[in-house]
Amino acid sequence: MSKIRFATVWLAGCSGCHMSFLDLDEWLIDLAAQVEVVFSPVGCDLKDYPENVDVCLVEGAIANEENLELIYHVRAHTKTLISFGDCAVTANVPAMRNMLGGAEPVLKRAYIELGDETPQLPNEPGIVPELLDQVRPVHELVPVDIFMPGCPPSAERIRATLEPLLRGEMPVMEGREMIKFG
Ligand code: SF4
Fold first, then answer.
1. What is the mean pLDDT of each run of 10 residues along the chain (182 residues)?
2. Mutate to test the pocket of ligand 1, among 20, 82, 87, 154 (most ligand atoms within 8 A of CB)
3. Domains of the chain, with CATH numbers?
4. In whole angstroms, what is the distance from residue 77 CA to residue 53 CA?
5. Which of 148, 135, 134 is nearest to 59 (CA)?
6. C-alpha 91 to ligand 1 mean position (Å)
7. Is this model's pTM higher than 0.90 or not?
8. At what angle do helices 155-166 and 27-34 cross, to 10 degrees?
9. What is the rounded CA–CA span in Å between residue 95 and residue 92?
């Protein structure tokens, strides 16, 4: 039987959800035996998201053009897309900047008003991605198959979500253990 093609993606998040994934400790060895890791910011150095991915954990909100391009690509090439953590599910912390009303006031506040010696806006086309005016949760841009809240989701919740998928079943995302935010 071919292995499940497994990926994780890091968008606008603090990487805390991926740190929680690493808290799976020795179960990661069991997981590695059952999946083929085809893309992830942890544990491998693959630059391009491939085709035919079975399961993908998506950490983070959609905050810039690079996030936007990647999430469309991920959705097009993934069977089961999991919104992984509160930033992916609700936009959470990255969306706090939405109250300033757009990308321009955010950049001015951060780089001009609070700039120290040489205030200037970051501008490096092709290297620094343009901010979107509003930070948005993943499901507002693409369909999501499973919502796994938590900031971060605990290792136990991650395992309880992935184990049924490894058996070819959908996890039941119900109850405090599986869907509590924060
Ligand atoms: S949900 Fe929490 S831990 Fe995960 S990326 Fe967002 S802020 Fe970090």
1. 93 98 97 96 89 98 97 98 98 97 96 92 91 98 98 98 97 96 94
2. 87
3. 4-96+135-179 (3.40.50.700)
4. 6
5. 148
6. 9
7. yes
8. 30
9. 6
